[in-house]
Specification:
Elements lengths: L2 E8 L2 E8 L1 H18 L12 H31 L9 E6 L6 E8 L13 E6 L4 H14 L2 E4 L11 E10 L2 E12 L21 E6 L13 E15 L5 H8 L4 H34 L7 H19 L6 H14 L1 H20 L6 H14 L4 H7 L3 H23 L1 E6 L4 H7 L1
Parallel strand pairs: 5-11
Antiparallel strand pairs: 1-2, 2-4, 3-4, 6-10, 7-8, 7-10, 9-10
Length: 438
Protein backbone atom coordinates (compact mmCIF):
# COMPACT_ATOMS: atom_id res chain seq x y z
CA UNK A 1 0.00 0.00 0.00
CA UNK A 2 1.33 3.41 -0.97
CA UNK A 3 2.45 5.50 2.00
CA UNK A 4 1.89 9.28 1.99
CA UNK A 5 3.08 11.80 4.57
CA UNK A 6 2.28 15.51 4.27
CA UNK A 7 4.02 18.48 5.85
CA UNK A 8 3.48 22.24 5.59
CA UNK A 9 6.45 24.05 4.11
CA UNK A 10 4.78 27.40 4.74
CA UNK A 11 1.29 28.91 4.58
CA UNK A 12 0.83 28.15 0.88
CA UNK A 13 3.11 25.14 0.19
CA UNK A 14 2.72 21.50 1.08
CA UNK A 15 5.25 18.71 0.66
CA UNK A 16 4.04 15.17 0.06
CA UNK A 17 6.45 12.32 0.82
CA UNK A 18 5.28 9.31 -1.18
CA UNK A 19 6.52 5.72 -1.04
CA UNK A 20 5.23 3.07 -3.44
CA UNK A 21 5.95 -0.52 -2.28
CA UNK A 22 8.64 -2.51 -4.08
CA UNK A 23 6.11 -5.24 -4.95
CA UNK A 24 3.94 -2.78 -6.87
CA UNK A 25 6.95 -1.30 -8.65
CA UNK A 26 8.11 -4.80 -9.65
CA UNK A 27 4.61 -5.78 -10.82
CA UNK A 28 4.35 -2.68 -13.00
CA UNK A 29 7.76 -3.30 -14.54
CA UNK A 30 6.86 -6.95 -15.26
CA UNK A 31 3.62 -5.86 -16.89
CA UNK A 32 5.49 -3.29 -19.00
CA UNK A 33 7.96 -5.89 -20.28
CA UNK A 34 5.16 -8.33 -21.04
CA UNK A 35 3.42 -5.71 -23.17
CA UNK A 36 6.69 -4.70 -24.80
CA UNK A 37 7.51 -8.32 -25.72
CA UNK A 38 4.28 -8.60 -27.69
CA UNK A 39 4.88 -5.52 -29.84
CA UNK A 40 8.68 -5.10 -30.01
CA UNK A 41 10.50 -6.02 -33.22
CA UNK A 42 13.92 -7.36 -32.27
CA UNK A 43 16.33 -8.48 -35.00
CA UNK A 44 16.96 -12.24 -34.86
CA UNK A 45 13.79 -13.06 -32.91
CA UNK A 46 10.20 -13.65 -33.92
CA UNK A 47 7.78 -11.05 -32.58
CA UNK A 48 6.77 -11.97 -29.03
CA UNK A 49 9.76 -14.30 -28.52
CA UNK A 50 12.59 -11.91 -27.61
CA UNK A 51 14.23 -12.84 -24.25
CA UNK A 52 13.77 -10.53 -21.30
CA UNK A 53 17.53 -9.94 -21.07
CA UNK A 54 17.59 -8.64 -24.66
CA UNK A 55 14.57 -6.39 -24.03
CA UNK A 56 16.24 -5.00 -20.90
CA UNK A 57 19.43 -4.29 -22.81
CA UNK A 58 17.62 -2.53 -25.65
CA UNK A 59 14.71 -0.83 -23.87
CA UNK A 60 15.49 -0.95 -20.14
CA UNK A 61 16.00 2.78 -19.62
CA UNK A 62 12.80 3.67 -21.46
CA UNK A 63 10.73 1.04 -19.63
CA UNK A 64 11.91 2.21 -16.23
CA UNK A 65 11.30 5.87 -17.13
CA UNK A 66 7.78 5.10 -18.38
CA UNK A 67 6.85 2.96 -15.37
CA UNK A 68 8.27 5.33 -12.77
CA UNK A 69 6.70 8.33 -14.51
CA UNK A 70 3.28 6.67 -14.61
CA UNK A 71 3.51 5.56 -10.98
CA UNK A 72 4.46 9.08 -9.86
CA UNK A 73 1.65 10.67 -11.87
CA UNK A 74 -1.03 8.28 -10.60
CA UNK A 75 0.15 8.23 -6.99
CA UNK A 76 0.44 12.03 -6.88
CA UNK A 77 -3.15 12.44 -8.09
CA UNK A 78 -4.32 9.93 -5.45
CA UNK A 79 -2.31 11.64 -2.70
CA UNK A 80 -3.71 15.10 -3.54
CA UNK A 81 -7.24 13.72 -3.42
CA UNK A 82 -6.72 11.73 -0.21
CA UNK A 83 -5.07 14.69 1.55
CA UNK A 84 -7.87 17.02 0.40
CA UNK A 85 -5.42 19.44 -1.19
CA UNK A 86 -6.34 22.11 -3.75
CA UNK A 87 -3.15 22.73 -5.76
CA UNK A 88 -2.80 25.97 -7.70
CA UNK A 89 0.51 25.04 -9.36
CA UNK A 90 2.27 22.08 -10.90
CA UNK A 91 4.23 20.02 -8.36
CA UNK A 92 7.97 20.14 -7.95
CA UNK A 93 8.92 16.45 -8.00
CA UNK A 94 12.17 15.24 -6.43
CA UNK A 95 12.87 11.52 -6.87
CA UNK A 96 14.65 10.05 -3.87
CA UNK A 97 14.78 6.38 -4.90
CA UNK A 98 13.87 4.77 -8.21
CA UNK A 99 15.39 1.34 -8.66
CA UNK A 100 13.77 -1.91 -9.86
CA UNK A 101 13.04 -4.21 -6.93
CA UNK A 102 13.03 -1.35 -4.39
CA UNK A 103 10.31 1.03 -3.18
CA UNK A 104 9.80 4.13 -5.32
CA UNK A 105 10.18 7.18 -3.11
CA UNK A 106 9.72 10.79 -4.12
CA UNK A 107 8.59 14.13 -2.73
CA UNK A 108 6.14 16.52 -4.37
CA UNK A 109 6.05 20.17 -3.28
CA UNK A 110 3.04 22.10 -4.48
CA UNK A 111 1.43 25.47 -3.87
CA UNK A 112 -2.11 25.27 -2.53
CA UNK A 113 -4.99 27.67 -2.33
CA UNK A 114 -4.66 29.53 0.99
CA UNK A 115 -7.36 29.37 3.62
CA UNK A 116 -8.68 32.92 3.86
CA UNK A 117 -11.36 34.24 6.20
CA UNK A 118 -12.48 37.79 5.57
CA UNK A 119 -13.42 39.76 8.69
CA UNK A 120 -14.65 43.24 9.54
CA UNK A 121 -16.05 43.83 6.09
CA UNK A 122 -19.42 45.25 7.11
CA UNK A 123 -19.79 49.00 7.54
CA UNK A 124 -16.59 50.08 5.80
CA UNK A 125 -16.44 53.87 5.40
CA UNK A 126 -15.77 55.23 1.91
CA UNK A 127 -16.32 58.42 -0.06
CA UNK A 128 -18.36 58.54 -3.25
CA UNK A 129 -17.15 61.26 -5.66
CA UNK A 130 -20.22 62.96 -7.09
CA UNK A 131 -20.27 65.46 -9.90
CA UNK A 132 -23.19 67.43 -11.27
CA UNK A 133 -22.79 67.71 -15.03
CA UNK A 134 -22.43 71.36 -16.04
CA UNK A 135 -22.92 73.26 -19.28
CA UNK A 136 -19.12 73.42 -19.52
CA UNK A 137 -18.95 69.62 -19.39
CA UNK A 138 -21.45 69.38 -22.24
CA UNK A 139 -19.51 71.98 -24.23
CA UNK A 140 -16.26 70.10 -23.69
CA UNK A 141 -17.82 66.85 -24.85
CA UNK A 142 -19.29 68.41 -27.98
CA UNK A 143 -16.00 70.10 -28.80
CA UNK A 144 -14.26 66.74 -28.59
CA UNK A 145 -16.96 65.11 -30.70
CA UNK A 146 -16.62 67.78 -33.40
CA UNK A 147 -12.83 67.49 -33.39
CA UNK A 148 -13.05 63.72 -33.80
CA UNK A 149 -15.14 64.23 -36.94
CA UNK A 150 -12.94 66.96 -38.39
CA UNK A 151 -11.62 66.51 -41.92
CA UNK A 152 -8.12 67.43 -43.08
CA UNK A 153 -7.60 70.12 -45.72
CA UNK A 154 -4.20 70.19 -47.37
CA UNK A 155 -2.07 73.35 -46.97
CA UNK A 156 -0.50 74.30 -50.29
CA UNK A 157 0.38 77.98 -49.86
CA UNK A 158 3.19 77.56 -47.29
CA UNK A 159 5.96 75.07 -46.47
CA UNK A 160 6.69 75.93 -42.84
CA UNK A 161 4.89 74.06 -40.04
CA UNK A 162 2.89 76.16 -37.60
CA UNK A 163 1.26 75.34 -34.27
CA UNK A 164 -2.13 73.72 -34.90
CA UNK A 165 -1.14 72.19 -38.24
CA UNK A 166 -1.40 68.47 -38.88
CA UNK A 167 1.94 67.36 -40.22
CA UNK A 168 2.71 64.13 -42.07
CA UNK A 169 6.15 63.00 -40.93
CA UNK A 170 8.74 60.29 -41.32
CA UNK A 171 10.80 59.77 -38.17
CA UNK A 172 13.37 57.59 -36.44
CA UNK A 173 13.87 57.40 -32.67
CA UNK A 174 17.04 56.26 -30.90
CA UNK A 175 18.12 55.65 -27.31
CA UNK A 176 21.88 55.48 -26.77
CA UNK A 177 22.33 54.98 -30.50
CA UNK A 178 19.92 52.02 -30.76
CA UNK A 179 16.78 52.41 -32.84
CA UNK A 180 13.70 52.08 -30.61
CA UNK A 181 11.09 53.20 -33.12
CA UNK A 182 10.47 54.56 -36.56
CA UNK A 183 7.46 55.54 -38.62
CA UNK A 184 6.53 56.64 -42.12
CA UNK A 185 3.70 58.96 -43.10
CA UNK A 186 2.54 59.44 -39.52
CA UNK A 187 0.09 62.25 -38.73
CA UNK A 188 0.97 64.48 -35.75
CA UNK A 189 -0.38 67.78 -34.52
CA UNK A 190 2.17 70.58 -34.38
CA UNK A 191 2.51 72.06 -30.88
CA UNK A 192 2.10 70.93 -27.29
CA UNK A 193 4.44 70.28 -24.39
CA UNK A 194 8.01 69.11 -25.16
CA UNK A 195 7.36 65.66 -23.65
CA UNK A 196 4.11 65.15 -25.60
CA UNK A 197 5.90 63.85 -28.67
CA UNK A 198 7.46 64.89 -31.99
CA UNK A 199 4.66 67.35 -32.81
CA UNK A 200 5.80 69.68 -30.04
CA UNK A 201 9.14 70.16 -31.84
CA UNK A 202 7.93 70.73 -35.39
CA UNK A 203 6.94 74.41 -35.27
CA UNK A 204 9.10 76.19 -37.85
CA UNK A 205 10.15 72.98 -39.61
CA UNK A 206 10.31 73.18 -43.42
CA UNK A 207 8.83 70.49 -45.64
CA UNK A 208 11.46 67.99 -46.75
CA UNK A 209 14.15 69.28 -44.36
CA UNK A 210 15.11 66.85 -41.53
CA UNK A 211 15.22 68.21 -37.98
CA UNK A 212 16.83 66.69 -34.89
CA UNK A 213 15.56 67.00 -31.33
CA UNK A 214 15.44 65.17 -28.00
CA UNK A 215 12.53 64.22 -25.75
CA UNK A 216 13.06 63.23 -22.12
CA UNK A 217 10.04 61.25 -21.02
CA UNK A 218 8.85 61.42 -17.40
CA UNK A 219 9.38 58.40 -15.15
CA UNK A 220 5.62 57.78 -15.03
CA UNK A 221 5.21 57.87 -18.84
CA UNK A 222 2.52 55.47 -20.07
CA UNK A 223 4.95 53.49 -22.25
CA UNK A 224 7.29 51.76 -19.75
CA UNK A 225 9.92 51.28 -22.45
CA UNK A 226 10.35 55.05 -22.77
CA UNK A 227 9.64 56.08 -19.17
CA UNK A 228 12.55 58.09 -17.79
CA UNK A 229 14.52 57.83 -21.07
CA UNK A 230 15.96 60.55 -23.29
CA UNK A 231 15.14 59.76 -26.91
CA UNK A 232 16.89 61.33 -29.92
CA UNK A 233 14.58 61.95 -32.87
CA UNK A 234 15.17 62.71 -36.52
CA UNK A 235 11.97 63.80 -38.26
CA UNK A 236 11.03 65.10 -41.68
CA UNK A 237 7.69 66.74 -42.44
CA UNK A 238 6.42 65.73 -45.88
CA UNK A 239 3.01 67.44 -45.92
CA UNK A 240 0.91 69.91 -43.94
CA UNK A 241 -2.84 70.11 -43.41
CA UNK A 242 -5.40 71.89 -41.25
CA UNK A 243 -8.43 70.50 -39.47
CA UNK A 244 -11.82 71.52 -40.80
CA UNK A 245 -14.02 71.12 -37.70
CA UNK A 246 -17.74 70.77 -38.45
CA UNK A 247 -20.01 73.46 -37.08
CA UNK A 248 -22.27 72.71 -34.15
CA UNK A 249 -25.56 73.08 -36.01
CA UNK A 250 -28.74 71.19 -36.86
CA UNK A 251 -27.00 69.15 -39.54
CA UNK A 252 -24.38 67.97 -37.05
CA UNK A 253 -27.11 67.12 -34.50
CA UNK A 254 -29.00 65.13 -37.12
CA UNK A 255 -25.91 63.23 -38.24
CA UNK A 256 -24.67 62.25 -34.79
CA UNK A 257 -27.82 61.79 -32.72
CA UNK A 258 -30.68 61.78 -35.24
CA UNK A 259 -32.27 64.81 -33.55
CA UNK A 260 -33.48 68.04 -35.13
CA UNK A 261 -31.78 70.65 -32.95
CA UNK A 262 -28.59 71.46 -31.12
CA UNK A 263 -30.52 71.72 -27.85
CA UNK A 264 -31.84 68.19 -28.29
CA UNK A 265 -28.29 67.01 -28.93
CA UNK A 266 -27.12 68.79 -25.78
CA UNK A 267 -29.86 67.06 -23.76
CA UNK A 268 -28.73 63.66 -25.01
CA UNK A 269 -25.10 64.45 -24.21
CA UNK A 270 -26.05 65.61 -20.71
CA UNK A 271 -27.91 62.35 -20.08
CA UNK A 272 -24.89 60.35 -21.27
CA UNK A 273 -22.52 62.33 -19.06
CA UNK A 274 -24.85 61.96 -16.07
CA UNK A 275 -24.86 58.18 -16.59
CA UNK A 276 -21.06 58.13 -16.98
CA UNK A 277 -20.63 60.19 -13.79
CA UNK A 278 -22.81 57.76 -11.85
CA UNK A 279 -20.83 54.80 -13.22
CA UNK A 280 -17.55 56.47 -12.29
CA UNK A 281 -18.81 57.21 -8.78
CA UNK A 282 -20.00 53.64 -8.30
CA UNK A 283 -16.69 52.32 -9.61
CA UNK A 284 -14.75 54.57 -7.23
CA UNK A 285 -16.76 53.23 -4.27
CA UNK A 286 -16.16 49.62 -5.27
CA UNK A 287 -12.45 50.25 -5.83
CA UNK A 288 -12.09 51.95 -2.45
CA UNK A 289 -13.88 49.10 -0.68
CA UNK A 290 -11.64 46.50 -2.30
CA UNK A 291 -8.52 48.51 -1.38
CA UNK A 292 -9.64 48.70 2.26
CA UNK A 293 -10.45 45.00 2.31
CA UNK A 294 -7.02 44.06 0.93
CA UNK A 295 -5.17 46.44 3.29
CA UNK A 296 -6.96 45.01 6.34
CA UNK A 297 -5.98 41.37 5.66
CA UNK A 298 -2.42 40.15 5.60
CA UNK A 299 -1.79 36.64 4.29
CA UNK A 300 0.56 34.80 1.95
CA UNK A 301 -0.46 34.42 -1.68
CA UNK A 302 0.87 31.58 -3.87
CA UNK A 303 3.43 32.92 -6.32
CA UNK A 304 1.91 30.90 -9.13
CA UNK A 305 -1.41 32.72 -8.71
CA UNK A 306 0.39 36.07 -8.74
CA UNK A 307 2.30 35.17 -11.89
CA UNK A 308 -0.84 34.06 -13.73
CA UNK A 309 -2.59 37.31 -12.83
CA UNK A 310 0.48 39.33 -13.86
CA UNK A 311 0.44 37.60 -17.25
CA UNK A 312 -3.17 38.68 -17.77
CA UNK A 313 -2.36 42.25 -16.73
CA UNK A 314 0.64 42.32 -19.08
CA UNK A 315 -1.56 41.18 -21.96
CA UNK A 316 -3.95 44.06 -21.20
CA UNK A 317 -1.11 46.61 -21.12
CA UNK A 318 0.35 45.37 -24.40
CA UNK A 319 -3.04 45.36 -26.09
CA UNK A 320 -3.61 48.92 -24.89
CA UNK A 321 -0.30 50.08 -26.39
CA UNK A 322 -1.50 49.08 -29.85
CA UNK A 323 0.95 50.33 -32.50
CA UNK A 324 3.21 51.71 -29.74
CA UNK A 325 4.18 48.19 -28.72
CA UNK A 326 7.94 47.57 -28.77
CA UNK A 327 9.41 45.85 -31.85
CA UNK A 328 9.76 42.08 -31.91
CA UNK A 329 13.49 42.34 -31.13
CA UNK A 330 12.70 43.98 -27.76
CA UNK A 331 9.35 42.32 -27.01
CA UNK A 332 10.67 39.61 -24.68
CA UNK A 333 12.80 42.03 -22.64
CA UNK A 334 9.90 44.50 -22.42
CA UNK A 335 7.46 41.82 -21.27
CA UNK A 336 9.88 40.55 -18.62
CA UNK A 337 10.25 44.06 -17.18
CA UNK A 338 6.50 44.60 -17.39
CA UNK A 339 5.78 41.38 -15.49
CA UNK A 340 8.19 42.43 -12.76
CA UNK A 341 6.57 45.86 -12.44
CA UNK A 342 3.07 44.31 -12.26
CA UNK A 343 3.82 41.92 -9.40
CA UNK A 344 2.38 44.07 -6.60
CA UNK A 345 -0.75 44.94 -8.55
CA UNK A 346 -1.25 41.27 -9.38
CA UNK A 347 -0.72 40.26 -5.74
CA UNK A 348 -3.39 42.73 -4.57
CA UNK A 349 -5.85 41.55 -7.21
CA UNK A 350 -5.38 37.92 -6.20
CA UNK A 351 -5.83 38.85 -2.53
CA UNK A 352 -9.01 40.73 -3.41
CA UNK A 353 -10.40 37.73 -5.30
CA UNK A 354 -9.69 35.36 -2.41
CA UNK A 355 -11.24 37.72 0.12
CA UNK A 356 -14.38 38.29 -1.95
CA UNK A 357 -14.77 34.55 -2.42
CA UNK A 358 -14.47 34.15 1.36
CA UNK A 359 -17.23 36.72 1.87
CA UNK A 360 -19.41 34.93 -0.67
CA UNK A 361 -18.93 31.67 1.22
CA UNK A 362 -19.62 33.21 4.63
CA UNK A 363 -22.72 34.98 3.36
CA UNK A 364 -23.91 31.89 1.48
CA UNK A 365 -23.95 33.74 -1.82
CA UNK A 366 -24.44 31.33 -4.70
CA UNK A 367 -24.53 31.34 -8.48
CA UNK A 368 -26.62 28.41 -9.71
CA UNK A 369 -26.44 26.80 -13.14
CA UNK A 370 -29.48 28.68 -14.46
CA UNK A 371 -27.98 32.05 -13.50
CA UNK A 372 -24.68 31.04 -15.07
CA UNK A 373 -26.39 30.02 -18.31
CA UNK A 374 -28.34 33.28 -18.42
CA UNK A 375 -25.12 35.27 -18.04
CA UNK A 376 -23.42 33.22 -20.77
CA UNK A 377 -26.39 33.93 -23.05
CA UNK A 378 -25.96 37.67 -22.46
CA UNK A 379 -22.23 37.45 -23.16
CA UNK A 380 -22.91 35.54 -26.36
CA UNK A 381 -25.51 38.01 -27.60
CA UNK A 382 -23.16 40.95 -27.08
CA UNK A 383 -20.37 39.13 -28.95
CA UNK A 384 -22.08 39.53 -32.33
CA UNK A 385 -20.57 37.19 -34.91
CA UNK A 386 -18.44 35.53 -32.23
CA UNK A 387 -21.48 34.42 -30.21
CA UNK A 388 -21.04 30.73 -31.03
CA UNK A 389 -17.38 30.84 -30.03
CA UNK A 390 -18.43 32.34 -26.70
CA UNK A 391 -20.97 29.58 -26.13
CA UNK A 392 -18.39 26.94 -27.06
CA UNK A 393 -15.85 28.48 -24.68
CA UNK A 394 -18.19 28.11 -21.71
CA UNK A 395 -18.85 24.47 -22.44
CA UNK A 396 -15.44 23.92 -20.88
CA UNK A 397 -15.78 23.18 -17.13
CA UNK A 398 -12.77 25.33 -16.29
CA UNK A 399 -14.15 28.35 -18.13
CA UNK A 400 -17.54 27.92 -16.43
CA UNK A 401 -15.87 27.67 -13.03
CA UNK A 402 -13.90 30.84 -13.73
CA UNK A 403 -17.03 32.73 -14.76
CA UNK A 404 -18.91 31.48 -11.70
CA UNK A 405 -16.06 32.70 -9.49
CA UNK A 406 -16.16 36.16 -11.07
CA UNK A 407 -19.93 36.39 -10.61
CA UNK A 408 -19.61 35.31 -6.97
CA UNK A 409 -17.01 38.01 -6.41
CA UNK A 410 -19.25 40.64 -8.05
CA UNK A 411 -22.13 39.67 -5.77
CA UNK A 412 -19.90 39.74 -2.71
CA UNK A 413 -18.76 43.22 -3.69
CA UNK A 414 -22.40 44.27 -4.14
CA UNK A 415 -22.94 43.18 -0.54
CA UNK A 416 -19.98 45.27 0.63
CA UNK A 417 -21.47 48.30 -1.11
CA UNK A 418 -24.89 47.68 0.46
CA UNK A 419 -23.35 47.52 3.94
CA UNK A 420 -20.83 50.33 3.54
CA UNK A 421 -21.03 53.77 5.15
CA UNK A 422 -20.85 55.98 2.05
CA UNK A 423 -20.33 59.75 2.16
CA UNK A 424 -20.93 61.79 -0.98
CA UNK A 425 -18.14 64.25 -1.76
CA UNK A 426 -18.25 66.77 -4.60
CA UNK A 427 -15.31 66.12 -6.92
CA UNK A 428 -14.34 67.24 -10.42
CA UNK A 429 -15.26 64.70 -13.06
CA UNK A 430 -13.37 63.59 -16.12
CA UNK A 431 -16.34 62.10 -17.90
CA UNK A 432 -16.71 64.93 -20.43
CA UNK A 433 -13.06 64.88 -21.38
CA UNK A 434 -12.88 61.09 -21.60
CA UNK A 435 -16.10 60.78 -23.53
CA UNK A 436 -15.18 63.59 -25.82
CA UNK A 437 -11.89 62.00 -26.83
CA UNK A 438 -12.78 58.39 -27.16
Amino acid sequence: MTKVAMESVDAVRRRLAVEIPAAEVTAQIERAYAQLRQRARVPGFRQGRAPRSVLEQMFGDQVRADVFGRLVQESYADAVRDQNLHPVSSPEIITENAEPGAPLRYSATVEVRPTVTAAGYAGLAVERPVHAVTDEDVDRFLTGLRERHATLVSISDRHEAQVGDIATINYEARVDGAVVGKGDQRLVEVGGRPEDGPGAHLAGALLGVPINFEITYPAEFQNPELAGKTVQFTATATALAQRDVPALDEAFAKTHADVDSVEALRDIVRQQLDAAAHRDAAGAVRSALVSQLVAAHEFDVPQSMIERRAELLADEVLEGLGPRRPPASRAAEFRTRLLRDLQEQARNQVKASLLLESIAEQERIDVDEATLDTHIDRLAETAGKARERVRALYQDPGARAGLRSRLLQDRALDLLVDRANITDVERPSGVAGVSGNG
